[in-house]
């Protein structure tokens, strides 16, 4: 008997047709929500098309999911899953034997490359040279040349050590950097020193690059704050590709404007979109992208391929083979 699969994600035409064709061949029913949205970050509210579904693909309402006994698997189309990362959802979901998974495998590569691109850009003075081009076309030969640096031998600390961080570690290894990563459980792993939070104070003064990939939660709210930023050396750089709420933005702006921190690159802010009048836009040495770190031209096709691969595991009852399974 076929499965009923619901989605509130609006895919491009090619990806949608692939999904429809594959599910039809397998004898499954596909139902798109009337409120489907192309923005994978936007959560959906209670949906009249969801009841009766076996599988939800997209961003369904967590409370509604819990109230639907037929629903056996939710796969969100993002790497982050803040709306679902709460005991009141995950614990009863686990107790009923349902599956919950995300798409971190789809977005790990672009996010990791995005961070590396900015690390290299700042090290090679590319934003400063581009600013000169837009400003008064100064030929700052000596300043740009002698302010340039190499990543080789520098120290990186990554806050969080999930799929994105592990891919970033792989990309950084050819530079011979010393790499730390923060995780609840500290353990040794090849190429990275995994540390617990109680070691942060001793490690932060060593850091040349602080990379934040923390998810949003009560425990991570303003995790990067005045005290922790104050432990960094003034030549250090900060990168945020996690969530905006994990950073005290006032403390970050103060550190940048006062020269206590060399530069910051932010792909996520609080709030989003960042209003034009927000002072972060005009903060010294602060570089912003509009939450595009996970972007890739083939995003929709990659999401559909990820889901179909996991669906094959679900169909044969091999739940352990579902990639990026949280529960």
Model description:
The protein is α/β, with parallel strands linked by helices and 327 residues long. The protein has 2 domains: 4-102 and 297-321, NAD(P)-binding Rossmann-like Domain (Rossmann fold); 107-288, Rossmann fold, CATH 3.40.50.720. The protein contains 11 helices and 13 strands. The chain has helices at residues 13-25, 62-66, 87-95, 104-123, 126-134, 141-147, 163-172, 200-203, 226-230, 249-257, 299-315, and strands at residues 4-9, 29-37, 55-58, 73-76, 99-101, 155-159, 178-182, 188-189, 192-195, 209-212, 237-240, 263-266, 286-288. The strands form 2 sheets. Strands 8-9-7-6-10-11-12-13 form an 8-stranded mixed beta sheet, with helices on both faces. Strands 2-1-3-4-5 form a 5-stranded parallel beta sheet, sandwiched between helices. Helix 1 runs parallel beside helix 11 and helix 4 (104-123) packs across helix 7. The protein is elongated. It starts with a strand and ends in a 12-residue tail after the last helix. The model has no long low-confidence stretch (mean pLDDT 96).
Annotation keywords:
alpha/beta; 11 helices; 5-stranded parallel sheet; 8-stranded mixed sheet; 33% helix; 327 residues; Rossmann fold
